[in-house]
Amino acid sequence: MSLFLPIDITASKNIHYFNLGILCGVKFQKTIWDFYKKHKRNLYWRKKVTPYYVFVSEIMLQQTQVARVEKKFPEFIKEFPDFKSLAQAPAKNVLAAWQGMGYNRRGLYLKKAAEIIIEKYKGIVPKDPKLVDELPGVGNATACSIVVFAYNTPHVFIETNIRRVFIHFFFSDKKNIDDKDIMLIIEKTLDTKTPREWYYALMDYGSHLPTIIKNPNRRSKYYKKQAPFKGSDREIRGAIIKSILKNPLTILQLEQATGFEERRLQYNLLKLKKEGFVMEKKRKYVIK
Questions:
Q1: Domain of residue 248, residue span
Q2: One domain for residues 48 and 34
Q3: In the list 35, 124, 143, 165, which could disulfide-bond 129, CB 3.0-4.6 Å?
Q4: Is-contact 248 242, C-beta < 8 A?
Q5: Which 8-state DSSP code applies to residue 25?
């Protein structure tokens, strides 16, 4: 069977899950494992698996391409080698190390999560996804992925590459596909003996799919094209943080440094102040 040939079965309320399990055991899992043996990615955080490396990499991988994380991850853990060093670091230092990743709030969430892990859990990532989900900036899917990869325990979760794989194999003639239906099949096909490697395999397969076929995720109920970055509030926020990390700046100096108009700078500065990123001192903006 071709490595990228969809299995001729439809996920719906009427699906016969017993038969699906047999089919997947014979075809689907073998296909994924065969691909992984030949094409698995040698990612930094997979070479040495620790709960800290897993936690940092999973937060970094939210809404960010693997290539960018591969570059930033070694630099970040060199600066902050463990939860304790990250928890104790000034927010300014964490944001400086985070530059280039985008979505700067994730850097602050990561620091706050480290503080809680040190104070509440004695530096140990909980093995219960519900507890991990309570940490800042995590969410259910990321919580499950962190526990799976850190402790090699089986939990069901979905992310963009995994979604892509299951839509390709089990929903080849469907549109507007709900994650709830996909999750049922993920659960049925989960390799409970080696869940860490199984999810690695799924993600590597899903990462490769769009290079040879049209992205299956376009048929997901939740698919949305990302708004252009150029000229967006995201770009302005990033430019503000990058500029004031170097020196405190007035609104006029920010206008000169970033090239954005005062009205939009003021709007985004107000949001950044409310979110705890920046504060104003003597008419100059600084990292809080």
A1: 233-287
A2: no
A3: 143
A4: no
A5: I
**Between residues 1 and 120, the one the model is more confident about:** 120
Q: What is the pLDDT of residues 137-172, one digit of tens each?
A: 999 999 999 999 999 999 999 999 999 999 999 998
- List, in order, residues 6 or more apart from 3 with CB less than 8 Å away: 31, 34, 35
- Tell whether 243 and 274 lie within a shared domain: yes
Return the SS3 of 205.
helix
CB-based contacts of 225: which residues, under 8 Å, 6+ apart?
none
Q: What percent of the chain has pLDDT over 90?
A: 75
pLDDT (mean) for 7-29 = 50
pTM: 0.85
The reply to whether 58 belongs to the active site is yes
Domain boundary among 196, 219, 242: 219
Catalytic hit among 58, 159, 275, 280: 58
**Contacts of 238 by beta carbon, 8 Å cutoff, 6+ apart:** 102, 104
